[in-house]
Amino acid sequence: MASNLKPTLAYIILYVQDVAKSVDFYSKAFGFTVRRLDDSNRWGELVSGETTIALTPIHQHETEDLTGVVQTPSSNRERNPIEICIDYSDVDAAYQRAVENGAAEVSRPEGKEWNQKVGYVRDIDGMVVRMGSHVNHPKQS
């Protein structure tokens, strides 16, 4: 019976200091379309193909008691245990737009041995965002 269950990744949720500010930042810096920002500014959604990027406040009494307090890096020498990876056909132009719109430079785009161009920035909450060209991987059987 369980073999009929096919998962679909519905959301990636980013915990941020200011939802409205982060929704605006991600729209301008990375080119995402805003799907919604609720009137309370406690939930925002960005269109990202089949998976929605959602933003919600880092401190929430609704979930902190249930799942614990969200931990954030204390400096740029630390990072979250997850990063956002965004594909672009023109990584250099996308990187430049992100930086011009408030992303902090980490590593300018460069070619990698696996035939991908990759650059890194930090968003306004310090989260690492990887910007790269699409890589075609062989199909798994």
Automatic annotation (TrEMBL):
Domain VOC stretches: 8-134
InterPro entries named in the record: Glyas_Bleomycin-R_OHBP_Dase, Glyas_Fos-R_dOase_dom, GlyoxalaseI/FosfomycinResist, VOC_core
Highest taxon of the lineage: Eukaryota
Residue ranges of the TM segments: none
Pfam families in UniProt: Glyoxalase
Name of the protein described by the UniProt record: VOC domain-containing protein
Organism name: Cucumis sativus (Cucumber)
